[in-house]
């Protein structure tokens, strides 16, 4: 039932009207168009993604309160535990994508890693339910001697907790790497009707992500805080297993695609071959380099790749396309680790060109990480009552303003920003991908400025004996949410547009790795700030009792880092030329209105 590598390449004579030539059923037979794929298959896949978002965000946004209040970890350690968990979840998408593309196929990858996620949540449920896996309650939970009255968790207690967290992260990364791709596999791009349905599928994919996020920060957080985490996590286990059962029941209707190998293997092969041949001179004629037409003439499988024109940058990588005499004069005697095609090299070059943009988008997600860590700690210390006080808003549920602002921004952008932007730019989409990212980065700076001002006002009021309303935090959640709507869509559009055709499966991994590294960067900054501010007997910025610390200074630091990153991004974006225009220029195609469009 995996996307096997030896599936038939053609469709039998007389069956072209009913079967497909690039998709197969679970038995390896050509898929019948009328009885496979389509919305009935895609809907079962969407449920898996909804449960993934419900679980990951439901654990992440409310975990810091559990680590501080129940496990008795410090504020900085708790924040780092949350960002490490979320960072691992996204970074493991690269592993999941490699496994899916090279060995298991998307179907088996989703099924296996969904089961791993369920196992992780089972461990988390046991960890929060069993009294022996939690330290005893503090003797003075709210007084000045709280830290000294609390028993630290044992190695076993922390080990079980982290086992559950990272099993969940492994499952999340594995299934998330393949869900959108397997969903799009259920539609045939060569058919006009199914191609339109595929575009609608991605809209519904984002919708299900948003629904899962809303359920996580409202219903699930409320259950965790009022009924107990074991019930909230147990509900996640039930939802994951129900979704997995639904997913498996659709096996006979799914369309499977041939394994194409991982782009990471291609990058490694080009780099290794170029390094091994670094002493060889490049031939004066580029036609002497090994390329797609040579591979086709030798009967090699080039996996539908189209020849790309040679570009001027990173010429040292072209040595990977030199065929040495020792490798055999016949192209058929080469292998990808000895001599890569020039098209393979050009695809790797394109990834290298994208790296500066990739790197300068990472700090946005460091700012985003604060919405699930210190902003939740702020909410915990503020007045969260609604109306007469009969209902108290869970601290983790403040994230609903972040999710809500994302859902609000998308239609506002389409209806207001795009028509307005068209008046000033030649882009029919309003803003280019890089312009959208720059807006998101600017909003992240403003969000940290708002967070710093709010925290300073909260701390001053608290020291004076007052308890400010938690809704003072709404601006920072709102700004980060709107920024995410711009940055997320801009990044996804950029990586999908600019990634080479032969490396499309890598585009999602590149995008998600910026999220992962942003969370890990948050961990590094928190650790560094905590170490520096506690040295010499000074009062640390990041403390369990926010009134005794200086969290606002930490926010000012992030605002400064984000501002510097914004300037770096603008510099990088101004020098970036989109792939379509660059390839046209390399081919000598010039139009009267062909102006290189930059991001700013």
From TrEMBL:
Gene3D superfamilies linked to this entry: MFS general substrate transporter like domains
Alphabetized UniProt keyword annotations: Membrane, Transmembrane, Transmembrane helix
CC terms in the record's Gene Ontology section: membrane
A GO MF label: nitrate transmembrane transporter activity
Membrane topology term: Multi-pass membrane protein
Membrane-spanning parts: 54-74, 81-100, 106-126, 201-224, 230-248, 390-413, 433-453, 510-533, 553-573
Pfam families registered for this protein in UniProt: PTR2 (PF00854)
InterPro entries: MFS_trans_sf (IPR036259), POT_fam (IPR000109), PTR2_symporter_CS (IPR018456)
Compartment(s) where it occurs, according to its Swiss-Prot or TrEMBL record: Membrane
Main subcellular location: membrane
A single GO BP: transmembrane transport
Similarity comment: Belongs to the major facilitator superfamily. Proton-dependent oligopeptide transporter (POT/PTR) (TC 2.A.17) family.
Listed name of the protein: Protein NRT1/ PTR FAMILY 6.3
Species: Zea mays
